[in-house]
């Protein structure tokens, strides 16, 4: 007689999970996080932003110059740098958007990093586009300047540089008068006028006069004046230097930069003058260090009252 065979063992249910017969039930692990997209977006965006800033830094340091011996190197490296900024920025933008989508679906935990990478990618793309504009403008402007100078050198007979010295030692001028240099540059110093101080004024001594002098420089010559630095040296009747007054309205403001032919620049200086030493004010100024200084004199208390 045949021995009966027992029926197959049914699968066991352990802890809510089904397991094959004879094996303990093991619950499945947590879903795998996909945080790599956000990390990659931040890294690529950071490098892209650095490459995008490179042309601006070179321009600020004066390296982007058509006259520079490194111009050939710049022409070769600049497209590479800008191209890297664009490629890295685009990749960072894509990875950041994908990482943000994964975070919204619960498959990633670095939503903030993904958004940061997206922003860096967009910034790198913008800097790459602006770098192209800045580099082309800088190089083209320098090329026009150099070629124009060469053309003038071929077509025009070289002339002696303008005489920026006073023809002779002139006597001090009175306030309101104008001194004309040999190259046509004109300088006028106005009479001291009372100045009303605001609540933010500094440099004024209580009881002193607050007076302002305006210096007007007109370039009547044929060449631009470079490195304009019109801030006068002032002494009172006792030969002492009064304090300059500064406030939020620009009480004291020098004229700086370049002055083109036919243009004018105005500087102003506001002074704290002792009333006992205001009988005469001496203002000495020159448009730039290359010009001889000229002196203007006159009383400083024209209608001013101590404050």
From TrEMBL:
Keyword terms: Membrane, Transmembrane, Transmembrane helix
Region (Disordered) residue spans: 1-31
Annotated transmembrane regions: 37-59, 71-98, 119-140
Superkingdom of source: Bacteria
Positions with biased composition (Pro residues): 1-10, 21-30
Keyword Transmembrane in annotation: yes
Protein name (record): DUF4190 domain-containing protein
Taxonomic lineage from the root: Bacteria, Bacillati, Actinomycetota, Actinomycetes, Streptosporangiales
């Amino acid at each position: 007689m045949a021995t009966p065979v027992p029926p197959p063992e049914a699968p066991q249910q352990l802890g809510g999970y089904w397991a094959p017969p004879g094996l303990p039930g093991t619950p499945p692990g947590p879903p795998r996080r996909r945080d790599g997209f956000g990390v990659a977006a931040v890294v690529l965006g950071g490098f892209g932003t650095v490459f995008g800033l490179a042309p601006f830094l070179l321009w600020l340091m004066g390296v982007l110059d058509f006259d520079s011996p490194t111009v050939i190197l710049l022409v070769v490296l600049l497209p590479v740098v800008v191209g890297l900024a664009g490629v890295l920025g685009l990749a960072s933008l894509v990875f950041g958007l994908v990482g943000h989508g994964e975070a919204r679906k619960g498959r990633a935990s670095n939503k903030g990093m993904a958004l940061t990478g997206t922003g860096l990618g967009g910034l790198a793309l913008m800097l790459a586009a602006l770098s192209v504009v800045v580099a082309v403008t800088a190089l083209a402007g320098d090329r026009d300047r150099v070629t124009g100078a060469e053309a003038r050198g071929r077509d025009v007979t070289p002339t002696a540089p303008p005489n920026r010295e006073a023809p002779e030692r002139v006597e001090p001028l009175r306030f309101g008068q104008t001194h004309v240099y040999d190259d046509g540059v004109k300088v006028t110093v106005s009479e001291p006028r009372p100045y009303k101080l605001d609540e933010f004024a500094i440099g004024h001594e209580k009881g002193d006069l607050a007076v302002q002098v305006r210096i007007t420089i007109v370039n009547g010559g044929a060449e631009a004046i470079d490195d304009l630095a019109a801030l006068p040296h002032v002494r009172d009747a006792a030969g002492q230097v009064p304090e300059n007054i500064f406030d939020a309205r620009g009480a004291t403001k020098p004229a700086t930069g370049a002055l083109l032919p036919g243009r004018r620049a105005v500087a102003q200086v506001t002074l704290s003058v002792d009333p006992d030493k205001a009988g005469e004010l001496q203002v000495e100024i020159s448009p730039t260090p290359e010009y001889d200084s000229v002196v203007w004199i006159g009383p400083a208390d024209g209608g001013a009252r101590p404050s």
